[in-house]
Amino acid sequence: MAALSDRSVFKSAIAAKLELCEAEWVKVMQLTVLLKPFQQATTILCAEKSITLSIVRPIIYNLINRHLLVKDDDSSLQRTFKVRAALDLTDRFKMENINVNNEVTAMQMATLLDPRHKKLIAEPSESVRSFIHTEVQRRTNLNHRHLATPNGNEQRQGSTVMDFLLGMDENHEGDDFAKYVAETQIDHNLDLCAWWKAHEVCFPAVAKIARQLLCIPASSATAERVFSTAGNIVSAKRSCLLPENVSHLIFLHQNRSLI
Question: What is the mean pLDDT of residues 56-73?
Answer without folding.
Answer: 96
